[in-house]
Amino acid sequence: MDILGMAFKKTFGFRPSRLDGMCDHEQEIVDAKLQTLAETFSYFCRLQQSILEEKPARGDTLQSTERNLLKQARSLGQVNKDVTAAKRNFWRAHKLAEDRGYKVMKKHTSYVPNLLQEIIKNRR
């Protein structure tokens, strides 16, 4: 098996039966994996946004605000790494599937059902 075939098997858990990716059962597995990766990516993006929008609580002392900002900065640093890793994992899997002939959607958000409704709900 070639290197891309091994990467595909590691990512999706199976070796494609054909190079054109036209097996329905395999397409369902690919879609499910891409949905999971897209949901992870979206989760970390929303978490990153919520950290960026976090504001100090009213009545906090300067010392308390400073402590909270330092915690927020550390959290944001980790979440930024998580966003980068999740983005890389999704697009790498997306490219592997596309190269093997599986149908893929153009945007990661297309794999996340109800994402728009969830974003709107959280903004209220």
β-strand amount: under 5%
State the secondary-structure class: mainly alpha
Question: Unreliable segments (pLDDT under 50, ≥5 consecutive)?
Answer: none
Largest sheet: none
Report, as a whole number of angstroms, the end-to-end distance.
Answer: 51 Å
Average of pLDDT: 84
User: Which range best describes the helical content: under 10%, 10-25%, 25-40%, 40-55%, 55-70% or over 70%?
Assistant: over 70%
Please explain how this structure is put together.
The protein has 124 residues and is an all-alpha fold. The chain has four helices and no strands. The protein is elongated, with a radius of gyration of 19 Å. The mean pLDDT is 84.
What's the arrangement of secondary structure elements?
Elements: H1 3-12, H2 24-53, H3 62-99, H4 115-123
List its salient traits.
0% strand; 124 residues; single chain; mainly alpha
Short structural summary:
This protein is mostly helical and 124 residues long.
